[in-house]
């Protein structure tokens, strides 16, 4: 890279000598050099210089803009574009590059809180990689609102409106997120209102935290629970559905079409928080009059509640609702 301070002096000298065409060509060549080197701030500053040197040098002005945008598009991560394809498809090229280069990368370790319930958050998070959980604490109970993965926007409730967080976002494993600062969004309202509007409309189509909380409460009321005794086997799964633990036992508490709960002993106080948001496979058997009824389900842990003396109830939401016939049988049959 050339010394830009020296090159600026050359440009000014050409202008003083009346060699405007030479000054334009020098500025244009420096723009190309900076853009190809990924120094876009200098490229933009030189493009402003081009306007000062000769506002009528339209060929160079247009070409320089195209070159900068092409170079910026060339270094945008393809994986990021694939994940956020639906968003970027709504944007013009200049809007897309403006958004991409405004996003800041951040890497989180397992168990890290990205934003916390009851506190302010003025960042809009774009999840590129990893698994996270959106949770809500109500008294001593911590509830899972939803699992969060690549392609999910998070933090929008406090980004697009002035309020404190009603939920917390916590990583289940290493995660890569990008975030947009609210100050950039405010600036776009004046400099690029089309981008600000499109981003807000895109978020408006996503599920809101308060809507998910309300939906959970409705589902709880809709699905009647049946208390049944018995023992089940369970194991923890990874995102691909492969067990990552051995098989453990728990005491069944109740079951409904949408999920179930059971009790386990936990002596490690860190474990309940680690379990929340994890995927699980359970299995148990009912002994009927003529045959056994086997139940095998997978789901996500939406609650781990402390009942004192190391007794915890684990609340599981099934991936698919239970067969109503099994639920009907559970009212009369006794599990083995």
TrEMBL record:
Boundaries of every Cyclic nucleotide-binding domain copy? 87-185
Q: Which domain of life is it from?
A: Bacteria
Recorded hits in SMART domains, A to Z, give: cNMP
Q: Record's InterPro entries?
A: cNMP-bd_dom, cNMP-bd_dom_sf, PilZ_domain, RmlC-like_jellyroll
Gene Ontology molecular function: any one: cyclic-di-GMP binding
In Swiss-Prot or TrEMBL terms, this protein is called Putative transcriptional regulator, Crp/Fnr family
> What is the species of this protein?
Desulfococcus multivorans DSM 2059
């Amino acid at each position: 890279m050339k010394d830009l301070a020296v090159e600026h002096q050359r440009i000014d000298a050409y202008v003083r000598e009346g060699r405007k065409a030479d000054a334009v060509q020098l500025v244009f060549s420096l723009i190309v050099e900076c853009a190809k080197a990924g120094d876009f701030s200098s490229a933009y500053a030189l493009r402003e210089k081009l306007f000062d040197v000769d506002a009528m040098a339209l060929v160079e002005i247009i070409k320089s803009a195209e070159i900068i945008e092409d170079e910026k598009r060339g270094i945008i991560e393809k994986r990021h574009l694939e994940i956020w394809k639906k968003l970027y498809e709504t944007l013009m090229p200049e809007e897309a590059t403006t958004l991409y280069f405004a996003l800041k990368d951040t890497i989180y370790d397992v168990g890290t809180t990205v934003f916390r319930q009851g506190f302010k958050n003025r960042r809009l998070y774009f999840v590129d990689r990893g698994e996270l959980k959106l949770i809500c604490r109500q008294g001593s109970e911590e509830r899972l609102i939803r699992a969060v993965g690549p392609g999910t926007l998070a933090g929008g409730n406090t980004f697009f409106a002035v309020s404190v967080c009603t939920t917390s976002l916590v990583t289940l494993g290493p995660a890569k997120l990008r975030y947009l600062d609210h100050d950039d969004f405010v600036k776009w309202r004046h400099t690029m209102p089309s981008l600000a509007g499109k981003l807000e409309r895109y978020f408006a189509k996503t599920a809101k935290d308060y809507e998910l909380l309300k939906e959970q409460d409705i589902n709880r009321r809709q699905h009647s629970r049946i208390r049944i005794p018995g023992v089940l086997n369970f194991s923890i799964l990874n995102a691909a559905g492969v067990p990552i633990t051995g098989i453990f036992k728990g005491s069944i508490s109740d079951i409904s079409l949408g999920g179930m709960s059971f009790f386990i002993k936990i002596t490690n106080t860190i474990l309940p928080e680690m379990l929340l948001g994890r995927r699980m496979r359970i299995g148990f058997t009912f002994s009927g009059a003529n045959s056994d009824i086997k139940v095998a389900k997978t789901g996500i842990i939406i609650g781990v509640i402390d009942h004192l003396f190391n007794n915890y109830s684990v609340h599981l939401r099934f991936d698919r609702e239970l067969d109503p016939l099994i639920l009907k049988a559970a009212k009369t049959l006794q599990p083995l």
